[in-house]
Design brief:
single chain; mainly alpha
Length: 77
């Protein structure tokens, strides 16, 4: 019977340090926006958010008033 060859013992790299090293490497590949681009895109996001909030407010008011009207009609108030 042949002897089993023992596997070479390779020390395991710490998972946290490997994660941090790989994350740092990936972040170096990122193309970061300029200050002007970041400000412009932030303004766009805030504008779209405000417009959508106003739209939802109007739709909510219409539904709320419609339901209130229907309830009053059904109860004969």
């Amino acid at each position: 019977m042949a002897k089993k060859e023992e596997a070479a013992v390779v020390p395991q790299e710490n998972a946290i340090s490997r994660y941090l090293r790989e994350t740092r490497g990936e972040l170096r590949k990122v193309t970061w926006p300029t200050r002007d681009e970041a400000q412009r895109l932030t303004a766009v996001v805030l504008g779209v958010t405000a417009a959508f909030a106003a739209f939802l407010w109007v739709v909510d008011a219409l539904f709320s008033n419609s339901i209130e009207f229907l309830i009053q009609r059904m109860l004969g108030l």
